[in-house]
């Protein structure tokens, strides 16, 4: 019988709901503790333990870990790209201090495994933008990207110096029908579905040909779980793995949405997020993730749009 107990920090965010429910299916409801500074989705609150947690409160974190005898932590709490640019100090403090709190728990032996997500934001305008490799120039020019790059270095450091089993994925833009966008630059690819179904039109804050790496949430959750369940000897990168799904532009996703809603109209009016998007890769090379722990994505643009439409149409009825 698996005796591990998992704590998810940031369970109310874009990834948190899906990840919590998937982990509860694996470990059992009572062994997956959801936590956030605010309440989570009803299915999370009603199916297992929930603790209110401000991750900046280190004493409260220790209290929860001791109370539930936590052995693994998934640290999802973060201030995302566009939001962090509007509050630089909070973005840096939250993104870095949360990680140091969790890594220190592992260093003193209180937990045995850590998951912390990085992002394609670690790359920058000097990074090769097509088929961006695992190891390349990384000169991020956003608060979010700088904090994620620093976090990767800390994860690798704690693994090398203290033997901490820490694992990470550089998420591309994530798309989900279950959660509202969380302040990211790629959020147009979630907004477009809601607005298409509500009004039949959408104004994109990115230009029509801005191509970015994206991933459908089921693939992102599966990648996360497969990485964490893989034998430790297969995890050869302890900073963060490149992982890819599909790449597309606003005009390409608009054309796919139009197949489901023929009267849909897309317009474009770039804002400050355009500069952030322009500094990121257009496509990602994830050969090492595929080689080391057998990663493989399942959803392309067409299958993702079809699944999004099927699920959101039920909500808007």
Structural account:
This protein has 317 residues and is of the alpha/beta class. It folds into two domains: 6-121 and 137-173 and 217-242, NAD(P)-binding Rossmann-like Domain (Rossmann fold, 3-Layer(aba) Sandwich); 174-214 and 246-284 and 300-316, UDP-galactose 4-epimerase, domain 1 (Alpha-Beta Complex), CATH 3.90.25. 43% of the residues lie in helices and 15% in strands. Strands 3-2-1-4-5-7 form a six-stranded parallel β-sheet, sandwiched between helices. Strands 6-8-12 form a three-stranded parallel β-sheet. It is globular and about 55 Å long. The N and C termini lie far apart (43 Å).
Briefly characterize the structure.
The protein has 317 residues and is of the alpha/beta class.
* Major sheet characteristics: 6 strands, parallel
Work out the helix count.
Answer: 12
How far apart are the termini?
43 Å
CATH homologous superfamily assignment of the largest domain: NAD(P)-binding Rossmann-like Domain
Query: Percent helix among the residues?
Result: 40-55%
Overall pLDDT confidence: 95
Q: Quick one: overall form? A: globular
The ordered H/E elements are: EHEHEHEHHEEHEEEHEEHEEHEHHH
In total, how many beta strands? Answer: 14
**How many discrete structural domains?**
2
Query: Given the helix and strand composition, which structural class is it?
Result: alpha/beta
């Amino acid at each position: 019988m698996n005796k591990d107990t998992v704590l998810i920090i940031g369970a109310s965010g874009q990834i948190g709901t899906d990840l919590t429910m998937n982990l509860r299916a694996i470990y059992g409801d009572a062994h997956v503790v959801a936590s956030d500074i605010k309440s989570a989705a009803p299915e999370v609150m009603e199916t297992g333990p929930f603790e209110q947690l401000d991750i900046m409160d280190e004493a409260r974190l220790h209290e929860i870990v001791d109370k539930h005898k936590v052995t693994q932590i998934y640290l999802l709490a973060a201030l995302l790209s566009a939001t962090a640019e509007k509050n630089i100090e909070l973005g840096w403090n939250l993104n870095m201090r949360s990680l140091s709190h969790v890594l220190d728990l592992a260093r003193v032996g209180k937990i045995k495994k850590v998951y912390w997500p990085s992002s394609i934001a670690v790359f920058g305008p000097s990074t090769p933008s097509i088929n961006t490799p695992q190891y390349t120039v990384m000169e991020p020019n956003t608060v979010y990207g700088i904090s994620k790059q620093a976090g990767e270095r800390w994860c690798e450091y704690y693994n090398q110096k203290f033997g901490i089993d820490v694992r990470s994925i550089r998420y591309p833009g994530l798309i989900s029908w279950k959660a509202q966008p969380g302040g990211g630059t790629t959020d147009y690819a979630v907004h477009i579905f809601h607005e298409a179904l509500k009004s039949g039109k959408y104004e994109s804050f990115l230009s029509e040909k801005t191509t970015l790496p994206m991933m459908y949430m089921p693939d992102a959750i599966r990648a996360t779980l497969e990485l964490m369940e893989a034998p430790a000897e297969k995890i050869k990168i302890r900073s963060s793995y490149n992982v890819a799904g599909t790449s597309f532009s606003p005009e390409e996703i608009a054309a796919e949405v139009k197949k489901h809603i023929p009267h849909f109209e897309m317009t474009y009016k770039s804002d400050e997020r355009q500069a952030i998007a322009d500094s990121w890769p257009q496509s990602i090379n994830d050969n090492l993730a595929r080689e080391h722990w057998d990663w493989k994505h399942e959803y392309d643009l067409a299958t993702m749009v079809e699944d999004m439409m099927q699920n959101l149409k039920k909500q808007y009825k």
